[in-house]
Amino acid sequence: MDRTNEILKSIGEKCTEQRRLILKAILELAKPVSADEVYEYLSDTNSVGRTTVYRTLELFEQKKLVRRVIFRDGIMRYESTHLGHHHHLICLSCGKVFPIESCTIVSLDESIIDEFDFLVTEHFLELYGYCKNCRKGEKK
Ligand SMILES: [Zn+2]
Ligand SMILES: [Zn+2]
Predict the structure, then answer these.
(1) CA of 39 to the centre of ligand 1 (A)
(2) End residue of a domain, out of 33, 63, 82
């Protein structure tokens, strides 16, 4: 069964078809996506306008269904908060994003409270470089 109805109900919002589609897209894409990418993804359905995508993603962010992710290109992207804590590897050549589940920074957070008496509650880390495919291309 489709989880989107349940999730929308859990945040106390009406389950409109458009909201369901947008949430479904975010869950299916399972990576940071811009509003435009969500719009493109749903363009086949022909039922969600670009403005609706923008507004709905803002609503989802307020309701903590998605979090904002901004890479150095400055484009605002959103990803599902259901994915849990993770980081990203971003290829500077093809733009592909690879999620990494492991977080080694937690130990840094812990040492900071001792060293600086500062309590870290969140951190973001994106690593930039070149993926396997793009490095192959360079050698040619
Ligand atoms: Zn690449
Ligand atoms: Zn982390």
Answers:
(1) 24
(2) 82
Q: What domain range is 123 assigned to?
A: 87-139
Closest CA to 129 of 75, 74, 89, 88: 89
Q: Residues in the chain with pLDDT < 50?
A: none
Measured CA to CA, the distance from residue 58 to residue 47 in angstroms comes to 19
The set of residues, in sequence order, having a beta carbon less than 8 Å from that of 47 and lying 6+ positions away, is 17, 18, 21
| Alpha carbon of 90 to ligand 1 centroid (Å) | 8
Q: Examine the domain organization and report whether 15 and 64 are in the same domain.
A: yes
Ligand 2 centre and the CA of 1: distance in Å? 32
pLDDT at position 30 is 87
Ligand nearest to the CA of 96: 1
